[in-house]
Design goal:
About 40% of the residues lie in helices and about 20% in strands. By secondary structure, it is an alpha/beta fold. Helix 9 packs antiparallel against helix 10. The relative contact order is 0.17. It binds adenosine-5'-triphosphate. Adenosine-5'-triphosphate binds next to loops.
């Protein structure tokens, strides 16, 4: 039976990297029926909305999507489609494994982090208003429900995958109420768990310093929305760049898989983008669908290409000369 998967190509490099992921998944021989859906620029062009209702309904109905990045206009325009999608579908947990990849050059060789980011509230609630001309307030929302839910997700994952420690980054010395609530919820969840898993709290500025000093001291990072966004990019920079980190957004009954990077309009349509993060997101999706063998097959293939280290098969950000398409073809060749 075919898996029905919603496919949102997205903006900028989105169509290129999602095409690559789709081609790799199809080359495995697995039976997937793709449901292409508009969002972002295509949503505006064809449906008059950056996030058409039919896109939301289709993902909610089919329960799984592979998504490319969508551009968010800066300091103007529509609210972030990515944020809206996560809120509308209650995709409360962003999950981002950040690891060194074989032979991919980076300043660190000891990164193995799981970033768990609360995905629905905090400063991303979109509640901003002009109090008087020249004075803006931006509301940071924290609820016990969402903070507890994401803490449970992080500890459940740590327990299931036998990880060693959960670290919460926070700024509860300044945001005593909102970050204080997040912290208290994490503490409460931890106190009800088996103490086999370590727990620590770190003020986020110190956390950033510690992270770049020695990432190996961290394991699972639990963060509220805004900090999770920033730390995800920081961590991506530690393993070679944005093209290397996959992501998943989990809700109770649906999941959307997408690379951590943005739409990179500076390199869109130039066959330069590294599609690996999107391919890896596709691999995570296959595991979610229970297709572990196919996931292993693709994972082994891209790791083979990386290990082989032939510059003609690696994209520019990995020190090679290949384009998006050539890298994708190399991965497909390695699968057969
Ligand atoms: P957005 O507004 O959608 O967040 P952005 O360009 O501000 O887009 P990113 O897309 O994350 O943010 O890009 C940051 C930098 O990393 C850019 O210089 C971009 O070219 C580069 N980059 C991002 N993704 C990739 C990729 N998959 N392969 C190669 N370079 C990438």
């Amino acid at each position: 039976m075919a898996h029905i998967v919603c496919l949102i190509p997205g903006d900028g490099i989105g169509p290129e990297v999602t095409t690559a992921a789709r081609q790799v998944i199809e080359a495995s021989g697995i039976n997937v029926e793709w449901v292409p859906l508009p969002a972002g620029e295509t949503g505006l062009e064809f449906c008059g909305s950056a996030l058409p209702e039919r896109t939301i309904a289709a993902i909610a109905g089919h329960g799984v999507a592979l998504k490319g990045p969508i551009t968010t206009p800066i300091a103007r325009g529509h609210v972030s489609v990515n944020v809206q999608l996560r809120q509308r579908l209650s995709l409360f947990a962003a999950f981002r494994p950040v690891r060194n990849l074989p032979k991919v050059k980076s300043r660190y060789d000891n990164v193995n982090l799981i970033i768990v980011r609360e995905n629905t509230e905090g400063l991303y609630s979109g509640l901003e208003n002009e109090v008087i001309p020249g004075v803006i307030q931006s509301l940071k929302i924290a609820t016990a429900d969402a903070s507890t839910r994401i803490s449970e997700f992080a500890f459940d994952y740590a327990t299931k995958m036998k990880r060693k420690k959960v670290t919460v980054f926070h700024k509860a010395n300044i945001m005593k109420k909102s970050d204080g609530l997040f912290l208290n919820c994490a503490r409460k969840v931890y106190s009800g768990r088996s103490q086999d898993i370590g727990y620590e709290e770190m003020i986020i500025d110190n956390g950033c310093m510690q992270l770049v000093r020695d990432p190996s001291q961290f394991d699972v990072l639990l963060l509220e929305n805004f900090y999770g966004d920033i730390i995800s990019d920081l961590a991506a920079g530690m393993v070679g760049g944005p093209g290397m980190v996959p992501g998943a957004n989990f809700g109770q009954s649906c999941a959307v898989f997408e690379p951590v990077h943005g739409s990179a309009p500076d390199i869109a349509r130039t066959n330069v983008a590294n599609p690996l993060a999107c391919i890896m997101s596709g691999v995570m999706m296959l595991r979610y669908l229970g297709e572990h063998q196919t996931a292993d097959q693709i994972c082994n293939a891209y790791e083979f290409v990386l290990r082989e280290g032939n510059p003609e098969n690696l994209t520019r950000d990995m020190g090679g000369t290949a384009g998006t398409e050539q890298f994708t073809e190399a991965v497909i060749r390695a699968m057969t």
